[in-house]
């Protein structure tokens, strides 16, 4: 076993001449040695670290594009099953960084991903609603009967709050299924 980092840093230890101890503990011990730590600090490895950081940022940017994609589908009242083709189109149009999520073809663009992203967005909206409700000195609740697209009866609940500048804000809170009424 060799350590390419130590070899590149021209260090002299068992991992630069070839370590014949193949136990996992030998590797664990090696990464803790001062030689290996010094090799990690060499500028060229610093460059590698910068490349890694850049790749992580690109993946985050790609994930943000995916989140915005889901958000757009919801705002336009489109089904989440359109998410894979939406992402495919964005990739074909050269949307920045999307290729960074393409680890194994389409794994990151299935509808399950869209469901999970939607759950994250919903959690965020719920958190915002909660903090608005907590911060508002007055809260008005509005309720109205409505039906969904399958004509099931629902009770729409809205709240009206005021912000720090006493500006009113109306927010949709939830949609309760009414089994009988
Ligand atoms: Zn090393």
From TrEMBL:
It comes from the Eukaryota. Residues 1-42 form the C17orf113 probable zinc finger domain. PANTHER family: DUF4371 DOMAIN-CONTAINING PROTEIN, RAS-ASSOCIATING DOMAIN-CONTAINING PROTEIN. This is C17orf113 probable zinc finger domain-containing protein. It comes from Batillaria attramentaria.
